[in-house]
Backbone:
């Protein structure tokens, strides 16, 4: 071994690029991750492979369609913390046609 090494031309990261796949960071619920890890152990494969297969299957069934405005609004309401709203007039009761 040498006493010193010259790393001036070195690059960080994987030695060979993976074709057709990208490295990402994703946050999953702990329960989801544990379930995929348990299934992967039973199947003798990696949990990331199973996650990839589940996503591919989901898209193949036609669920990869455009998101509607109603769905987007619902998801935003579910995900955003419920902060108190200031200076918002209370909702008016709906008018009814009384005869």
Residues:
């Amino acid at each position: 071994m040498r006493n010193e090494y010259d790393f001036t031309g070195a690059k960080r990261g994987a030695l060979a690029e993976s074709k057709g796949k990208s490295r990402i960071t994703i946050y999953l619920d702990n329960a989801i991750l544990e379930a995929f890890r348990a299934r992967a152990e039973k199947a003798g494969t990696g949990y990331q492979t199973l996650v990839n297969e589940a996503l591919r299957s989901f898209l193949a069934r036609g669920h990869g369609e455009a998101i509607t405005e109603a769905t987007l609004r619902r998801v935003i309401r579910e995900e955003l913390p419920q902060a108190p709203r200031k200076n918002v007039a209370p909702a008016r009761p709906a008018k009814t046609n009384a005869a």
